[in-house]
């Protein structure tokens, strides 16, 4: 039976440089053989392939579609100097006609070659049970992404050469070896069209529409083309047969055309000169790959994306409005900017799929509620380039209102802890545009809160006389909430650490303020420490000029905590 046959499993892997083990079948050659023919496989690592393609593209040469083609093409060069310049690698795995070599099994072979100094593949295993072979092969389907080269399968061989000879060969196929192929991740299909999408910030992204093709068990109809340069560099034309690749969770993308399948009907593609949504001439900033529709805020395609972003969870969090509704509202002319969301009424949603009276009422309530979101969320909602939740919190904390942020110069914004020059420049640029300033005013007009919430109640005077600086991201409180909490107990908030600072409340990614606080021996609290301080302060009989605690030893390992 087959299970009694020792099998050797061999698959390409990293070079094996570890010392030879005293493995039972390992053979250390005592003498150098008179002649040995070494067979194996030449390959190119993915990193080397990418570097090669970069060089080829720079020199204006045709790039290779994949590492396999790159390796084969490198070997076929007429000029051996070119071949020598390519980062080719080799795995030895089979002996050819030789003299003075006594090998009796597949398993011995790589050990022997390695002892002679040839690179061999480390990823090989020997089994006695075929079920284990299958399990191992399946395991490699998941592991193949960890290899530094591409592999399309595993070769399973009967181990003993004697048994290999007995089994023989049918036609050209040995009966003692079989390939276990991984599901394909590369295939060929026809490029039917190149579609264009306009993003929230106006970036134009080309996408491939291909003849539907099964790729590793998934039907693929659309694939990424990255950008216009990518299409031009690879000379990808509409009508081309193209190689489509899908790896891991990455969306499928087009590698390049299969140039020798062209019949002359293929059409080169060019980035349109005007935005498909608003007909504004497209622009490309110097040094940038992306083309943009500069009609920022007005272009309907951008507006749909901006509405989607504005209502999203990290921003104003309006439930019941998604991509479809945004599209519909923009198409119907109901909204010309995100502030118009606050002018919607029940009629605006009339006739919209799945929008009955109850759902409409819920959406309107959601819109109304979103007026009082924290300032940081509103800043996120504006969709300023490079401004995410963390930056928005820093800006909200530092400026306190949209008006103040709008009035700030790039330098002033750059001075905010946690804000770098790129974000600062982007924010200043955003508010330098009249349309964006108008939008900010309009948001205020329609009742959106553009200031930090005012501290409504004073809970105690427990922190009176203490000055606090907050830095970094706290685990549960937003910057505003923490400030509110401190103020409501009589504490003061300052923007920078000085000798007058009583406490630094530090969260994640705290930077220069933390260092400064340590230097000045300011008490450092994390969020839990702040809560504990408030808890104990609230119980304290009277507020003191300064809390009695001695300054905590600044923690050396970056962990922030304080015992009270
Ligand atoms: Zn446009």
TrEMBL record:
Query: Pfam families from the xrefs?
Result: BRCT (PF00533), DNA_ligase_aden (PF01653), DNA_ligase_ZBD (PF03119), HHH_2 (PF12826), HHH_5 (PF14520), OB_DNA_ligase (PF03120)
Query: Which keywords does this Swiss-Prot/TrEMBL entry list?
Result: Dioxygenase, DNA damage, DNA repair, DNA replication, Ligase, Magnesium, Manganese, Metal-binding, NAD, Oxidoreductase, Zinc
Q: Which domain of life is it from?
A: Bacteria
A GO BP term, please? Answer: DNA replication
* Alphabetized InterPro entries for the sequence: BRCT_dom, BRCT_dom_sf, DisA/LigA_HHH, DNA_ligase, DNAligase_adenylation, DNAligase_N, NA-bd_OB-fold, NAD_DNA_ligase_OB
Cofactor(s) in the UniProt record: Mg(2+)
EC annotation from Swiss-Prot or TrEMBL: 6.5.1.2
**Ranges for the BRCT domain?**
458-530
Question: Which Gene Ontology terms cover its molecular function?
Answer: dioxygenase activity; DNA ligase (NAD+) activity; metal ion binding
The broad enzyme category this protein falls into is ligase
Catalytic reaction equation(s):
NAD(+) + (deoxyribonucleotide)n-3'-hydroxyl + 5'-phospho-(deoxyribonucleotide)m = (deoxyribonucleotide)n+m + AMP + beta-nicotinamide D-nucleotide
Q: Where is this region: Disordered?
A: 538-564
User: Would you name any one GO CC term?
Assistant: cytosol
Name the SMART domains on file. BRCT (SM00292), LIGANc (SM00532)
Role noted for this protein = DNA ligase that catalyzes the formation of phosphodiester linkages between 5'-phosphoryl and 3'-hydroxyl groups in double-stranded DNA using NAD as a coenzyme and as the energy source for the reaction. It is essential for DNA replication and repair of damaged DNA.
> What does the sequence similarity comment in the record state about its family?
Belongs to the NAD-dependent DNA ligase family. LigA subfamily.
* The protein's name in its UniProt record: DNA ligase
What organism does the UniProt record list as the source?
A: Kouleothrix aurantiaca
Taxonomic lineage: Bacteria, Bacillati, Chloroflexota, Chloroflexia, Chloroflexales
